[in-house]
TrEMBL record:
Recorded name of the encoding gene: Myo1b
Keyword ATP-binding in annotation: yes
Residue ranges annotated for the Myosin motor domain, each copy included: 1-307
InterPro entries (UniProt xref): Kinesin_motor_dom_sf, Myosin_head_motor_dom-like, P-loop_NTPase
Any single GO CC term annotated in Swiss-Prot or TrEMBL for this entry: myosin complex
UniProt-recorded name of the protein: MYO1B protein
Pfam families: Myosin_head (PF00063)
Key words of the record: Actin-binding, ATP-binding, Calmodulin-binding, Motor protein, Myosin, Nucleotide-binding, Repeat
Length: 348
């Protein structure tokens, strides 16, 4: 119920993870249709970049203003930090405070004077400003780092590389907020280089009981995880897409014109294949480099046809092999019979 600096930076990390999820799924999904020249109706979805900017902007972000309060001379308190937020973020649509120069929340009794509220992607969260400055200013000073670096234990020494006398840095140690921001940036950079796969888990109840579904809890998680937007984009688009070459290679056995070899461009081969199978035109679209299939049932149909065709081909191969084996045995027996008969007639 009482959210302080720790919960604030945790929620900031959650916002960044949600942002990369949006960029790598919803945004990339729609941009791929544009790249491939597929006719597409844009689906609006909420992009939480505006919330991330509210927190991490280098000039007007909450973390930047918190660092500025920690570094400036004079009397610095949590109240002065909140006052600074009220001045800079008053007009931001995702920031709420009773003390801001914007009078929208002046009569909001659910928002105490010593708190501010951020409308996160998952909903509104209220933060107690008390302790923000002290917790952000919790620095690991240079002499402590040097003392830990002198430890005989290799692990402890590795945990404090900034204590190495050969790498003396006269700058002020970074604040907790700036360190966390740098760590999140490194994490995001690492994730951008990967091909992530997402598993979204829904908790049906808080009691860990079987066969008990809390509808309000489930609906909240669905909204929080962005599943509605993801499903909306998926249903409006195409369930399956594949480059022409592997698609033709996988399903060419279903058409006499493409089996066993297709002499021509892969796209032309896929067009001939789909026309031969009489798949409805609304079920697929041809992109610049990929074939897009709208309904999973169409893909299941192709897989069933391929499975049946493989069985037929296996039966054909077995039939031809058995015929070859029987004919080879027959010819061998025929030659042996001729040899035996010729020798018998010689001595008869």
């Amino acid at each position: 119920q009482d959210n302080s600096f720790e919960q604030f930076i945790i929620n900031y990390c959650n916002e960044k993870l949600q942002q990369i999820f949006i960029e790598l799924t919803l945004k990339e999904e729609q941009e791929e249709y544009i790249r491939e020249g597929i006719e597409w109706t844009h689906i609006d979805y909420f992009n939480n970049a505006i919330i991330c900017d509210l927190i991490e902007n280098n000039q007007t972000g909450i973390l930047a203003m918190l660092d500025e309060e920690c570094l400036r001379p004079g009397t610095v308190t949590d109240d002065t930090f909140l006052e600074k937020l009220n001045q800079v973020c008053a007009t931001h649509q995702h920031f709420e405070s009773r003390m801001s120069k914007c009078s929208r929340f002046l009569n909001d009794t659910s928002l105490p004077h010593s708190c501010f509220r951020i409308q996160h992607y998952a909903g509104k969260v209220m933060y107690q400003v008390e302790g923000f400055v002290d917790k952000n200013n919790d620095l690991l000073y240079r002499d402590l780092s040097q003392a830990m670096w002198k430890a005989n234990h290799s692990l402890i020494k590795a945990l404090f590389p900034e204590g190495n006398p050969a790498k003396i840095n006269l700058k002020r140690p970074p604040t907790a907020g700036s360190q966390f921001k740098a760590s999140v940036a490194t994490l995001m950079k690492n994730l951008q280089t990967k091909n992530p796969n997402y598993i979204r888990c829904i908790k049906p109840n808080d009691k860990k009981a079987a066969d008990v579904f809390n509808e309000a809890l489930v609906c909240h998680q669905i909204r929080y995880l962005g599943l509605l937007e993801n499903v909306r984009v998926r249903r409006a688009g195409y369930a399956f897409r594949q480059a022409y070459e592997p698609c033709l290679e996988r399903y060419k056995m279903l058409c006499r014109q493409t089996w066993p070899h297709w002499r021509g461009p892969a796209r032309a081969g896929v067009e001939v294949l789909f026309n031969e199978l009489r798949i409805p035109e609304e079920e697929f679209s041809f992109g610049r480099s990929k074939i897009f299939i709208r309904n999973p049932r169409t893909l299941f149909k192709l897989e069933d046809l391929r499975k049946q065709r493989l069985e037929d081909l296996a039966t054909l191969i077995a039939k031809i092999y058995r015929g070859w084996k029987s004919r080879t045995r027959f010819l061998l027996m025929k030659r042996c019979q001729i040899v035996i008969a010729s020798w018998y007639r010689r001595y008869a």
